[in-house]
Each structure stands twice: as structure tokens, then as C-alpha cells.
Design goal:
Layout (H helix, E strand, L loop, with lengths): L1 H26 L6 H19 L4 H15 L2 H13 L3 H26 L2
Helix pairs in contact: 1-2, 1-3, 2-3, 2-5, 4-5
């Protein structure tokens, strides 16, 4: 049952990431991977909310491991960070990587605090 819950959540999270990423990317005209940035920060925030809510293990498997695990993406973050760096936009790459990490942690804690109330 655990695998099914993670699979269902992952299918929805990955699908949402695909469509939301495409939607944001088509409207963004800057040399910064804003879609992945926003998706990863919002995912970190919602994971903080979920974690602080101390939900049942099955709900966490569905939403945390499945949905948010597929919604956020470390591999795309690394790929886009490297691509920006390779394209000689080193300042943008440094801002992207460092702000994603810092704001991801801050987003998780903000979600965690919000989820406590």
C-alpha cells in the first residue's frame, strides 16, 4: 500500500511540476530558471507545513514522499544551475544556487511554523 500511495502522489506532483514549470517558463524572459526556483521553494514551504502538522504516515507518504518529492526536483535544479554557469552567467548561477538553498531552508521553516498554528 505504501508504494501505491507514493506512486499516486508522485504522478500528481510530477504532472503539476511539468505543467506549472512550462507555464512559468513560457512567461519568464530572464536568464534565471525562475520556474524551478519557484517550484522548489514552494515545495519546501509545503513540506514544512506537512511536517509540522504531524500527519498520519500514509498521508505523509502520499503528499510528502510522493507528491512533493515529485513536485520538487534536485536534478533539474543542478542541471539549470550548471547551464546558467556554463552560459557565462556566473553571477546569475551563484544567485540561483545560493538563493534556492537559503530560501528553500527558510521556506521549510516558515511552513513548519505556519503549520504549527
Amino acid at each position: 500500500m505504501d508504494i501505491i500511495l507514493v506512486g499516486i502522489g508522485g504522478a500528481f506532483g510530477g504532472t503539476l511540476r511539468f505543467f506549472l514549470g512550462k507555464y512559468i517558463s513560457e512567461r519568464s524572459r530572464i536568464g534565471f530558471p525562475v520556474a524551478t526556483f519557484l517550484i522548489n521553494i514552494s515545495g519546501a514551504f509545503f513540506l514544512g507545513v506537512l511536517y509540522s502538522a504531524q500527519v498520519d504516515n500514509r498521508i505523509y507518504l502520499l503528499l510528502g514522499d510522493g507528491f512533493l518529492g515529485a513536485y520538487t526536483t534536485f536534478s533539474t535544479f543542478m542541471y539549470e544551475g550548471f547551464t546558467v554557469f556554463r552560459d557565462n552567467a556566473r553571477a546569475n548561477a551563484a544567485i540561483y544556487v545560493s538563493s534556492t538553498i537559503l530560501l528553500g531552508v527558510a521556506g521549510f521553516f516558515a511552513g513548519y511554523i505556519l503549520g504549527k498554528y
